[in-house]
Amino acid sequence: MARMAQTDLPFDEPSIFTPKDILEEVMRRRGIRHEDVPPVCLIAYSQKILNLAREHFNYRFKEHDIGTSIPVPIYFFSPLKCPPFGIIVPQPGDANAAIVVEELSYMGFQDFLSTGTMGHPTALEIPELQIGGLALVRQALSYEGTSRHYTPKTILAPDVTLTDTLKKLLQEDSIHFVEGTIATTSGFYRETPSFIRQIIARGTIGVDMETSALFATAGYCKKRIASLLYISDFVKLHKDTAVWDMRFLDQKVQEAAEQVFGLACKVIDRIS
User: CA nearest 240: which of 193, 201, 189?
Assistant: First the structure.
């Protein structure tokens, strides 16, 4: 019998099990009610974002655990002067990104804002973009293995209205940013010169490990999502070699996280 290729999978076929099969009992046991889930969740691939929220809103939050075999904490914030929202800091990677969106969607979240770091692929001696620079994602190229289970598309896009709202706030605050395409890969340690050459040729401004899967899953779940990333490292292409210039601990990266958190609060206030 011939095997069905992954790209030929029927994307509208119901799954054997769903987040409901796992979370219904978890939520019941831990006292999490669907009606208490806020409309917006910030998916932050940075502990810095969560720390800022906890400091900024003091004790106006509650930590929940939606994990089964290992803890998966999610925080519900209830600020006095802005609408309630959630924050989750997931483990990295495309497969986990899809699980997170599926489970948060089942809980009752309607809109998602994703943020975190990205690498900037470049063939220039002096990179076009700088460490800590903000990038509003307009589309993501899938070089990962999860999206194909949700859609036949290999170029994924966020929600236009939510992304435009984020763009307007960036402009209102006179914050410098770029917008464009990023590439999402499963292989953090397999960013070869050939791969970097290819994504540069396709016009990408960044590379990460989650965004295309986040977009694919949010679309499948019929939820809105937008993504604002910031540059933490360079992947510089030199002829047939590539050099990784890692700057994760730079002060500008920390400042970018603070800037993104402030913007996220304004987006939540505007769309809630």
Answer: 193
Give CA–CA dist 158/269, Å, rounded.
20
Cβ atoms of 138 and 180 within 8 Å: the answer is yes
CATH number at residue 84: 3.40.50.1580
Domain membership of residue 5 (yes or no) is no
Range of the domain at 185: 17-271
pTM higher than the cut 0.90: yes
Residue 129 lies in a domain: yes
Strand-pairing partners, residue 206, are 182
Residue 2 within any structural domain of the chain: no
State pLDDT tens for residues 98-120: 999 999 999 999 999 999 999 99
Q: How far is CA 240 from CA 84, 192, 196, 245, in A?
A: 50, 10, 10, 17
Please give the tally of structural domains in the chain: 1
E-strand spans in 110-162? 111-122, 134-143, 155-156
